[in-house]
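In the current project phase, the collection of sequences with tokenised folds has grown. A sample record is quoted in full directly below:
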Amino acid sequence: MLYFAKRFLQKEHSDETEISEALTDAVSHLASIDEDFAPQVAEALRYFVQLIFHRRSLEERDALVDIIRQHIQDHKELNTMAQTTAEFLIEQGEAKGKAEGKQDAILKLLQFKFQDVPEVLSREIRNIHNLSHLDTLLEQAMTAQSLEEIDTHLS
């Protein structure tokens, strides 16, 4: 089991043909494993689905998930795995959008108050994705009398 799973994981950055072949081998092998190892097989499949959704292009996802679907009995479990992954990606996108919105608000406020915002400060703010850190920066921006009062390196 480990050999095929490892081979699939090693092909993570390979072209579509190579990863498809490795996935087919891994899933075929997993499907033939004794029922006593069902929890381990499910965990391996869950990891494969996660890798597909997180590391492969949108165009490849359906074909790769279909490979898994062809070799397993419980399609409902696969759909749950894929749905859970999709929900995670949506939440991740929403969090990214919130962070970008707060970054925009901070920078807009600083530009309004101080006209010029140095590129270094702008870049530092754009690199902060922690929402509570961005909230603190927004509060600083509202009350700051100078750009020097903006501390992007909060601990």
Summary: Helices lie at 2-10, 16-31, 38-55, 58-71, 75-114, 119-126, 131-143.
